[in-house]
Amino acid sequence: MSSAINTLADCLLAVLLVATIASCVALSRRITRLKSDESAMRKTVGELMLATETAERAIAGLRTTLGDCDRTLADRLRTAERYAADLADQVAAGETVMSRIARIVDSSREATSLEPRAEPAPAAPKGLNDDRLGAAVRAAQALSDRAARRREGRAA
Q1: The pLDDT of residue 115
Q2: Which site from 28, 30, 116, 150 is most exposed, i.e. has the minimal number of CB atoms within 10 Å?
Q3: pTM of the predicted model, to two decimals?
Q4: Are 105 and 148 in contact (CB under 8 A)?
Q5: What is the residue range of 83's domain?
Q6: pLDDT tens column, 36-85
Q7: How far apart are CA 36 and CA 34, in angstroms?
Q8: 72 found inside a domain
Q9: Is residue 105 part of a domain?
Q10: What's phi and psi for 98, nearest 5 deg?
């Protein structure tokens, strides 16, 4: 009987060894797959870190560019505001000059309509300012005549 028990124990031991070998082979395959997955994962993580660093550098460059653009835009806006203020001042001065010219033309019309026509006085020697004043009066007179013709055309 003892030999039967020894044989049975040996058979049981042989079955257990075969099961152990089969499980070791399966575990070896799993470990090999995990190691290959780990190396692929490490490679992927490395690529992600590189992409992250590149993106951070790009963001820093964009922030610098944005700051430059902001400063440039602010300078241009300040310049445009100055030009707009200067232009508004010049328009106001032009309107003042035009109103003065209109008053001069109106008063000269009133004066010529009230006074009888007399022979023109002999011309005095003209200087540079007299030429400019005469040109301004002629321009104002031309504008006034045009405005009167328009009013007459609308009234008729």
Answers
A1: 52
A2: 116
A3: 0.41
A4: no
A5: 12-114+129-155
A6: 888 888 899 999 999 999 999 999 999 999 999 999 999 999 999 999 99
A7: 5
A8: yes
A9: yes
A10: -65, -40
| Residues constituting the chain | 156
How do residues 101-122 score in pLDDT, each as one tens digit?
A: 888 888 877 777 765 554 444 4
Instruction: Decide if 133 is inside a domain.
Output: yes
What's the number of domains the chain is made of? 1
3-state secondary structure the chain: CHHHHHHHHHHHHHHHHHHHHHHHHHHHHHHHHHHHHHHHHHHHHHHHHHHHHHHHHHHHHHHHHHHHHHHHHHHHHHHHHHHHHHHHHHHHHHHHHHHHHHHHHHHHHHHHHHCCCCCCCCCCCCCHHHHHHHHHHHHHHHHHHHHHHHHHHHHC
Give Cα separations from 64 to 52, 58, 70, 75, 85 (angstroms).
Answer: 18, 10, 10, 17, 32
